[in-house]
Amino acid sequence: MKKIFLSLFILFGFLAVNAQTDSLSQYTGKYKFPDGSPVSEITMTVDNGLLMASSAMGSTEFKPTSETDVFEVVAYGGTATFKRKEGKVAGVQILVGDVNIEGEKTEGIVINISAATLWYLRK
Fold first, then answer.
1. Res 120 pLDDT > 70
2. Tens of pLDDT, residues 26-53
3. End-to-end distance of the chain based on CA atoms, in angstroms?
4. Of the candidates 52, 76, 77, the residue with the CA atom closest to the CA atom of residue 62
C-alpha cells in the first residue's frame, strides 16, 4: 500500500511539474528591444521548471505572480509583463527601478535540454 501511495505521489508531482513547464513555454523565445535600451535582446527559456531570462547583463528567474502574464524579475527587483496579440505572447514590458523597456518577440520556443536528456536521446 505504501509503495502504491508513493508511486502515485511521484506521478502526480511529475505531472504537476510538466504542466507548469508547458504553461511557461508560451513565454520562451527571443525578445528584441529598441536601440538605446540597456539590453538589445533577452532569451527566455524554461530550465528545471523555472522561467529564466538571459541577456548580456546576466540571467535571472522570472517568477510568476498572482496576475496572469506578470512575473517578478527576481535578481533585479522589478516586474515583467508579457503582452499578447490574438491570444499569443508577442512582447514583454520590463520595469526595473526607473527603467521601462518594451520588446517584441522575434523567435519562438527555445528549449533547454540537460546533458542527461541528450545522453538518453542518443541511445
1. no
2. 999 999 999 999 999 999 999 999 999 9
3. 35
4. 52
**Residue 71 near residue 83, CB atoms below 8 Å:** no
User: Which residues touch 114 (CB under 8 Å, ≥6 apart)?
Assistant: none
Question: What count of other Cβ atoms lies within 10 Å of the Cβ of residue 59?
Answer: 13
Q: What whole-number distance in Å separates Cα of residue 25 and Cα of residue 33?
A: 20
pLDDT > 80? residue 6: no
What domains does the chain contain, in order, with CATH numbers?
2-122 (2.40.128.50)
Cross-strand partners of 100: 95
- Which pTM was predicted? 0.71
Grid coordinates given for 37: 535600451
